[in-house]
Write a structure and sequence with these properties.
143 residues, alpha+beta, Alpha-D-Glucose-1,6-Bisphosphate, Chain A, domain 4, 7-stranded antiparallel β-sheet, 3 helices, 38% strand, globular
Length: 143
């Protein structure tokens, strides 16, 4: 199995980062086109990325202001069963984010593309939280 890992600081408090990674309104600012769900363990999220990419995930880990994890239940074949985990480590006025997308069946072409996409999406999230930058959905992988 293969995993995607990214660690980086965000110059804001853990509560704001947690809202960005767990609340549908937060996710829509940097990752999803639209989403819905309740940030609580066991809840189901609908994650929409455009035509043909309406996915579902279950909240498999929820520790307020510390950790949030989604397990994909309906998605492309190689995403199904994978887990996207965000661990937050407060560090004064900033937060260290430890990101993991685990459970990939292989290092396929789609895995390689997703490694790049996560880096770009996480950068959009960081810029939004630190500077208030808004990037329309269609341009998020181009900034």
């Amino acid at each position: 199995m293969a995993d995607i890992l990214h660690d980086f600081p965000i110059a804001t408090d853990a509560h704001r980062v947690f809202e960005a990674i767990s609340a549908p309104k937060g996710l829509d600012h940097w990752w999803t086109q639209t989403s819905s769900g309740s940030p609580r363990e066991g809840a189901e999220y609908e994650l929409r990325f455009g035509p043909g990419y309406d996915w579902r995930a279950r909240v498999s880990r929820y520790v307020p202001d510390r950790e949030f994890e989604l397990e994909f239940t309906e998605a492309m074949d190689d995403w199904r069963g994978t887990r996207v985990n965000f661990e937050l480590i407060p560090n004064g006025a900033s937060t260290q984010l430890r990101f993991r997308h685990t459970g990939w069946p292989a290092t396929s072409e789609h895995y390689r593309i997703t490694c790049f996409c996560w880096a770009m999406y996480l950068r959009v999230m960081r810029r939004w939280l630190e500077h208030g930058e808004e990037v329309e959905y269609e341009r998020r992988l181009d900034v």
